[in-house]
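Expect chain and fold; see below:
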Amino acid sequence: QVRLVESGGGSVQAGGSLRLSCVAFGYSYTTYYMAWFRQVPGKEREGVAAIHIGVGGGATYYTASVKGRFTISQDSAKNTLYLQMNALKPDDTAMYYCAASLGVPPGPSELAVDKYNYWGQGTQVTVSS
């Protein structure tokens, strides 16, 4: 019954901001990763940002193209993940997906698709120039 539900997408002009939200339902792990991915038709899904949640958690990870512009955060009490996106560019246009890992799987990257087991249905972000 694990469900991830994204919201907050929309259409904005370049330089604008959006905040995406992801609410997790039925998730019982206390230490895990959550992340935001994005995908454009014809391209592979790209890891945007990730955060380690739970005991010893708090570390964040970003793909180079969004550093300084995007911020990932979470509210444990609300089981909600956020992605604050500022200074948006047309290249940020994509379907954005929320993801959660099954525990803490090993791996060299927190932004690898195969690290995650649960996915939301996506929320579209469109940035016009």
Summary: The first strand starts at residue 3 and ends at 7. Residues 60 and 109 are 12 Å apart (CA to CA).
